[in-house]
What we know:
The structure holds two protein chains of two kinds. Chain A is an all-alpha fold. Chain A contains twelve helices and no strands. In chain A, helix 4 packs parallel to helix 8 and helix 8 (about 155-180) runs antiparallel to helix 10. Chain B has helices at about 45-55, 95-105, 110-120, 135-150, 165-180, 195, 215-220, 235-245, 265-275, 290-295; strands at about 10-15, 20-30, 35-40, 60-65, 80-85, 155-160, 185-190, 200-205, 210-215, 225-230, 250, 260, 280-285. The radius of gyration of chain B is 24 Å and the shape is elongated. Helix content of chain B is about 25%, strand content about 20%. The longest helix of chain B is centred in the middle third of the chain and has 16 residues, at about 165-180. By secondary structure, chain B is of the alpha/beta class. The chains are: A mainly alpha, B alpha/beta. At the A-B interface, helix 1 and helix 6 of A face helix 1 and helix 2 of B.
Amino acid sequence: xxxxxxxxxxxxxxTTGLWWGLLIPTFVIALGWALGTGxxxxxxxxxxxxxxxxxxxxxxxxDPSQWQLSLFGMAxxxxxxxxxxxxxxxxxxxNEINRRTITTTFLTAPNRVAALTAKMLVYIAWGxxxxxVIVASVSIxxxxxxxxxxxxDAGGWLxxxxxxxxxxxxxxxxxxxxxALMGSVVGTTVVLLLYMLIVENLIQLVLSSxxxxxxxxxxxxGSVNGxxxxxxxxxxxxxxxxxxxxxxQATRFFAGGLGxxxxxxxxxxxxAWTALFFAGGWASTQRKDIT
Amino acid sequence: MHDGSGRIVVQNLTKxxxxxxxxxxxxxxxxxxxxxxxxxxxxxxxxxxxRMLLGLVTPTAGIxxxxxxxxxxxxxxxxxxxxxxxxxxxxxxxxxxxxxxVYAAAxxxxxxxxxxxxxxxxxxxxxxxxxxGFSLGMKQRLxxxxxLLGDPQVLVLDEPANGLDPEGIAWLRxxxxxxxxxxxxxxxxxxxxxxxxxxxxxxxxxxRGQTMYYGPLANLRDSQQSRVLVxxxxxxxxxxALQAEGISGIEQVPDGRIAxxxxxxxxxxxxxxKAGVSVYGIQxxxxxxxxxxxxxxxxxxxxxxxxxxxxxxxxxxxPNPYGDxxxxxxxxxxxxxxxxxxxxxxxxxxxxxxAPPPVVPPPVAPPPAVPPPGTxxxxxxxxxxxxxxxxxxxxxxxxx
Lengths: 291, 400
């Protein structure tokens, strides 16, 4: 029974152009950011004079030529590109409400729980698919522009890919929840984009200027960025010896995860945000009068 | 699991949208094997009722059952009930075939079923066109195709004729009748009686969220009365002559003419001649179904009809077959139309019509065919002129 509904939900996503319409910018943005950050990372290394390099080596216990700067670029590129699977998720239910196809969806499902469960499973799969495209294009971009010494080793690369996948799935689910709560295509898209790209960055600015950057790690964007940022930062520092906390925070900042906690704590925090919106969206769709 | 009876039961359904009572204590039963019309003016609560029946809207009170079960207990509902609720439930960028394949998958029928129903509704040529480019009539057909995917036993259609051209309506009529004849249940809503008059066997008429009538359409037809309007030289003499013949139901209409119910013009003219009264004008006025429908459903948004001769015995008003006529009108004093089998405007109004009759549905068994509730008392029957209540005449009678 659920298999039928999953098949139906999957067909819904593949019979319109939205999935590739959002996949193209996902690919372009992920690749572009990776190319750019890779080039910037290389550029930074080049401007260091030998004396500066020596100071940094002392600070980090690691020679700049061995810095895997590309990790920061990977983290930031993944963070930016996961905006698109989030939008894709955001349209999952809001578009059905908008197009009134939700009526037929509920008429052909045994109950709403089954219909929404099928939708959730399908969008987890789509989140993973977007995640694979994102980490693949980020990897290509980084590999093209970073010097080989700045690239992570195989284990580091796998770790980044894994958290990239997790971040993409969670972002998709986050979008599904917000979309279901708002029930409007335009509203969902605008709110998600505005919040993730502008509003929370402003909040982060205020928090960090007020000396409370640790709060950022609790915010939705701050925590999801923390998943990739903290892994990038700890991979970067893994070759170093004992690293002071300030340096950890600084590297997390470079990785786009200022104020973030350990990656798994960040992951749990964002999972809580996702669960909150998802449960809210689910509850509202479950009870909604479809008129 | 459901009982497979194909019966739709609506029991005391009520829906309150904030302060607005969209549906009030609505009850009726729809039996398989016939097409039932669900009639009422726009805003009467038809769509809300159908959506409650289909589990899309949660009732404030009451219950809707299909095959003895609420919608959510039907198991795979697409196999039991198909519904056309609106003609716009499509993604504009999805082709007709893909739209159907999505829901074929959900119901669990083979993909070929999508092409089969497309052919069935005459959209075979448009299968690969996107629904966004469809005309309203094509969308209606696609919506019907979607409803038919699971080959359901029960078909529920909300205003399916909207946007269909005359040819499409004729096709739909034939389709629904043959669907019902195969022992299945068809419930079709409309705000136009004329639109479904030739299609339906049974009707449920609602107004202001309440059932005004339900039963066979034929019974409604039989309750029709025509009347004769005559302008005599001496009204008093004519009335006396008529009464001497045992004809009651005589009434003076505002323009000075006399209205006589239950007789034909020829008889009135003959009697006038016998009484030595000149007849300056005589006219037979035929009440049609549309007008009756208007009477039953008027008053929701329109002013109440002019009230005349309160308390006079109304030769047309049948005794209220549904019990206590003094039930409180939840809307206060405004007359809810004219009750059951109310005569057209201008006829005598029953004195008790200030209160709407409470709707007590007959048991689940089909409404009795003989004698129909509200059939005019014997003696008023007269030869029906075949065809005078055929649809198509007189337009919509202003009742739309």
